[in-house]
Amino acid sequence: MENEKRYESYVLIHNIAKRHNVGTLARSCTAFGVSELILVGRRDFNAFGSHGSTSHLNFRHFNSLSLAKSFLKERDCDICGVEITDDAVAVNQHPFKRSTAFLLGNEGTGLSAKECEICDFFVYIPQYGCGTASLNVTVAASIVLHHFGVWAGFSERTREGNKFVVAERPTKQERKNYCAETTESIVEERRLKRENTSNGFFDESVKDDSSSNLLDGLFDS
Questions:
Q1: pLDDT per residue as tens digits for the range 110-143
Q2: For 66-77, how does the pLDDT look when each residue is reduced to its tens digit (9 = 90+)?
Q3: Fewest beta carbons within 10 Å, which of 9, 51, 88, 211?
Q4: Domain-by-domain residue ranges, the chain?
Q5: What is the pLDDT of residue 1?
Q6: Neighbours of 113 (CB within 10 A)
Q7: What is the DSSP string of the chain?
Q8: Whole-angstrom Cα distance, residue 23 to residue 175?
Q9: What would be the CATH architecture of the domain defined by 2-220?
Q10: Among 20, 29, 28, which Cα is nearest to 48's?
Q11: Does the pTM of the predicted model rise above 0.90?
Q12: b (16+ CB within 10 A) / e for 142-176
């Protein structure tokens, strides 16, 4: 389909605090046709929740936001911040012009000033109920990516029965050194994070103190 080849979507995330969120985010990226998931800063994450979708998704890593921005601009790609700002446009208005990378903010504090500086425009997700001030980052990403796919004219995936057909995994796969935590450790991590509400999805203060870069074989560079 012409539009599918013409436009691409990317997801951009910066200095992950909740590493296991990337697994569920990767699942949404594959469902909505994202070309690449770009990590900036920290790159150690857990594939928990991805249901194998990381095998069908391209990853890329940069050490700084400026390098990520340069990469995207070389591909004539806009950077869209998903944030409620004075000039943000409702995502259902589809204010897209070309291939777009979506930068998602902290569920508690939103995008930092540094992150906002690299954005070309902003979208927000209208809410119609009064019980919450924000959405989980993966839920927000899914809504925004779906709207972009509709605007870009992406082809709907073939269905079989009550599910969509999953493509075969690539025969040649790079080494994927996922953070090999157990389900129990993830549950415990989530419990501790709930007790410490200051931890958000992005956290500029988080230091990567892992003994090695856990995904050296996963990223294009």
A1: 899 999 999 999 999 999 999 988 888 889 999 9
A2: 999 999 999 999
A3: 211
A4: 2-220
A5: 41
A6: 6
A7: -HHHHH--EEEEEESBSSTTHHHHHHHHHHHTT-SEEEEES------TT-TTGGGG-EEEEESSHHHHHHHHHHTT-EEEEES--TT-EEGGG----S-EEEEE-BTTTBS-HHHHHT-SEEEE-----SS-S---HHHHHHHHHHHHHHHHTPPPPPEETTEEPPPPPPSS----------HHHHHHHHHHHHH-TT--SB-TT-----SS-TTTTTEE-
A8: 17
A9: 3-Layer(aba) Sandwich (3.40)
A10: 20
A11: no
A12: bbbbbbbbebbebeeeeeeeeeeeeeeeeeeeeee
Q: Per the structure block, which two tokens stand in for 217?
A: 């074989």
Residue given tokens 């605090």 in the structure block:
17
Q: Distance (Å, rounded) from C-alpha 68 to C-alpha 60?
A: 9
